[in-house]
Amino acid sequence: MRTWTDNHGSVSVDHGPLTYSLRIGESYERIGGTERFPEYAVHATTPWNYGLVLDGSRPAYSLRRRSTGRAPGDNPFTLDGTPLVMTARARRIPEWSADDEHVVAPLQPSPARSTAPVEEVTLVPMGAARLRITSFPTVSPDGTPWLADGWYRIANRNSGKVLGVDGMSTANSAHVVQFGDTGTADHLWRLVANGDGWYRIRNQHSGKVLGVDLMSTANSAHVVQFDDNDTADHLWQLVPDGGGWYRIRNRNSDKVLGVDLMSTADSAHVVQYDDNGTADHLWQLLR
After folding, report:
1. How far apart are CA 219 and CA 229, in angstroms?
2. Could you report the average pLDDT of every consecutive run of 10 residues in the chain (287 residues)?
3. If 0-12 CB within 10 Å is exposed, 13-18 middle and 19+ buried, where does residue 271 land?
4. Please, how many CA atoms are within 13 Å of residue 246, restricted to the half-sphere of its CB?
5. What class does CATH assign to 151-286?
6. What are the angstrom distances between the C-alpha of 274 and each of 136, 163, 218, 270?
7. Cβ(123)–Cβ(64) under 8 Å?
8. 3-state SS string over the chain?
9. Which residues pair with 256 in a beta bridge?
10. Are the C-beta atoms of residues 144 and 113 closer than 8 Å to each other?
């Protein structure tokens, strides 16, 4: 069992020279090429969004090697031809999904939270799989919540109001404010994973992302929306605080998202500030 510390604590299963992947049902769709060199798209026909259930003191204890009873043929590296498999205990992570282009969302920190039933899944040598989950998250019922892809309203604990854009502006540098939840599109935000634990937070109405005015690192600097130009102030980390609440930390300044002067009024400016434990620094994602 290998642990990938730099890949959110995910794990891989090895035995001798073989690394194992989840067995995923495969459906082949001809999309082009020639009769001699056809091109196919391969689609999953069985669930793939599993995390492994491991014993902390004996991580490999739940793994079982077994023979399929098949003699190795000309090509043992197929789902039906492999003579060796493993079984493992796992839970599905419902929030882990693929996007509209069928690209799997990046891994998030392990252990991830899952209360799904424990299942036995089959692992096959990686070379036998065309669709591969090989670096697995681990899961437990009290793990870190997995942030699903989708649109959220982001509610402030102190005021109960949600994150929006002043005047529903679509302009660069428009101020981000809090407002009563009226169902407008500027109140909807999408977490776009950067792949390293940081996110861009994109507004549905404007298509722009959450940032800090002039890339300031000062306390009380205004939070704004801006075109996504890859600056560090457009990257945010969601730090769990328990009970479904998060601190939202800026990569450029290391400060957290808050409300100016802890106001509870509509249209109060959203700012960045040192993390001093106040309730206006806590936010909840609502779908």
Report:
1. 23
2. 94 96 97 97 97 90 88 84 95 92 89 97 97 97 91 98 98 98 98 90 98 98 98 96 94 98 98 98 96
3. buried
4. 17
5. mainly beta
6. 35, 19, 9, 13
7. no
8. CEEEHHHCCEEEEEECCEEEEECCCEEEEEEEECCCCEEEEEEECCCCCEEECCCCCCCCCCCEEEECCCCCCCCCCCCCCCCEEEEEEEEECCCCCECCCCCECCCCCCCEECCCCCEEEEEEEHHHCCCCCCCECEEECCCECCCCCCEEEEEECCCCCEEEEHHHCCCCCCEEEEECCCCCHHHCEEEEECCCCCEEEEECCCCCEEEEHHHCCCCCCEEEEECCCCCHHHCEEEEEEECCEEEEEECCCCCEEEEHHHCCCCCCEEEEECCCCCHHHCEEEEC
9. 249, 273
10. yes
Instruction: Tell me how far apart the alpha carbons of residues 246 and 201 are, in angstroms, rounded to a whole number.
Output: 14
CA atoms lying within 13 Å on the CB side of residue 158: 21
Q: Which residues pair with 209 in a beta bridge?
A: 202, 226
Query: Which residues is 247 bridged to in the sheet?
Result: 239
State whether residue 279 is helix, strand or coil: helix
Q: What is the pLDDT of residue 197?
A: 86
Alpha carbons 200 and 85: distance in angstroms, whole number: 39
* Joined tokens for residue 61: 């204890």
First to last CA, the chain: 36
Q: How many CA atoms lie within 13 A of 59 on its CB side?
A: 14
So where are the chain's domains? 2-29+38-140, 151-286
Q: pTM value? A: 0.81
Could you tell me how many residues make up the chain?
Answer: 287
Structure tokens at 24: 């995923």
